[in-house]
């Protein structure tokens, strides 16, 4: 990896933003959660949080968006801390699926009937069901306060409209969750588990928040500014490994070859990138490809990685 000059990185990030902004035209904003339809497909933003503390940003960095599947990394880290590895991996596997993020197919044909990994919807719902807390409110509050700590932003909350919109239309996620209840992957009230899951997906952030969160993972679980341990190193390591193998769904293999950065996308168009020992990256561009990953976001990361030699491979 090249030594990073902050002023050059700033200049080149602005150039890349300009180059990749039109790429959004080749994608489609997510529609299956109606509230996400309102996003502007021409928006593109990138923030980089270097572990040395510098902030490099370009594009529409003031836009706020919901975490969606990026939140799955956060709840995985929490479940590993709450219950330990053995308990988490009794309920979810460690393998990529090769299927879309909301697919039910493998859940039915695999024995035992547990989700293949925590980055697909079924796996993430199962992980959320493991979180400690006496009721849905306390669980949501715990997730929010963990996200606020990771991002060092006490103002982070969740978007009520996006939450309601998903709540009202989430029949597929409901089907996954009830299926898992039947096979004892999920215990307790399914609607309560789903309520926490929809709220974690609706947590609202900007690109800088995402970059800051990524930087904690890049820094092996420690706050890059204060050195405070936010999660144990082995928890950060498991999360980063899942980001490589499953973070971009059934495009994770291609992304690993072309970009080579542990990353997690969400259907809002966000991508969290983690360059170990170096930087956290937050990207936003809401027009998605057919697998649910941001078109302009993925291409921008590809250019950035090639330019600065960021691939971990
Ligand atoms: O459960 C869902 O379908 C959404 N709340 C999150 C899915 C998602 O972000 C998939 N991403 N690419």
From TrEMBL:
Gene3D superfamilies: DD-peptidase/beta-lactamase superfamily (3.40.710.10). It is an enzyme of class 3 (hydrolase). The keyword Glycoprotein does not apply. GO terms for biological process: glutamate biosynthetic process; L-glutamine catabolic process. It comes from the Bacteria. InterPro entries: Beta-lactam/transpept-like, Glutaminase. Its EC number is 3.5.1.2. Transmembrane segments: none annotated. It holds the Pfam family Glutaminase. Keywords: Acetylation, Hydrolase. GO terms for molecular function: glutaminase activity. The keyword Acetylation applies. Substrate binds at residues 69, 121, 166, 173, 197, 249, 267. It catalyses: L-glutamine + H2O = L-glutamate + NH4(+). Belongs to the glutaminase family. Homotetramer. PANTHER family: GLUTAMINASE. HAMAP family: Glutaminase. This is Glutaminase. The gene is glsA.
């Amino acid at each position: 990896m090249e030594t990073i000059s902050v002023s050059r990185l700033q200049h080149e990030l602005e150039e890349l933003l300009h180059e990749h902004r039109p790429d959004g035209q080749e994608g489609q904003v997510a529609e299956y959660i109606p509230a996400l339809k309102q996003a502007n497909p021409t928006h593109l933003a990138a923030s980089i949080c270097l572990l040395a503390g510098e902030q490099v940003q370009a594009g529409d960095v003031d836009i706020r968006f919901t975490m969606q599947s990026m939140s799955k990394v956060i709840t995985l880290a929490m479940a590993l801390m709450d219950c330990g590895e053995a308990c988490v991996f009794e309920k979810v596997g460690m393998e990529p699926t090769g299927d879309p993020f909301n697919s039910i197919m493998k859940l039915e044909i695999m024995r035992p009937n547990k989700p293949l990994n925590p980055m697909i919807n079924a796996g993430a719902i199962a992980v959320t069901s493991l979180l400690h807390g006496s009721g849905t409110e306390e669980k949501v509050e715990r997730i929010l306060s963990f996200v606020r700590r990771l991002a060092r932003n006490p103002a982070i909350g969740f978007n009520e409209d996006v939450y309601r919109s998903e709540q009202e239309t989430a029949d597929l996620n409901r089907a996954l969750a009830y299926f898992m209840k039947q096979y004892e992957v999920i215990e307790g009230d399914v609607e309560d588990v789903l309520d926490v899951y929809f709220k974690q997906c609706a947590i609202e952030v900007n690109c800088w928040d995402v970059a800051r969160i990524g930087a904690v993972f890049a820094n092996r679980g420690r706050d890059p500014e204060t050195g405070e341990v936010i999660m144990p190193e082995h928890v950060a390591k498991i999360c980063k490994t899942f980001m490589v193998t499953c973070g971009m769904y059934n495009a994770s293999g291609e992304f690993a070859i072309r970009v080579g950065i542990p990353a997690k996308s969400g259907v809002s168009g966000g991508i969290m990138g983690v360059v170990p020992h170096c930087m956290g990256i937050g990207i936003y561009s809401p027009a998605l490809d057919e697998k649910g990953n941001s078109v302009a976001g993925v291409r921008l990361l590809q250019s950035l990685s090639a330019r600065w030699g960021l691939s971990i491979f």
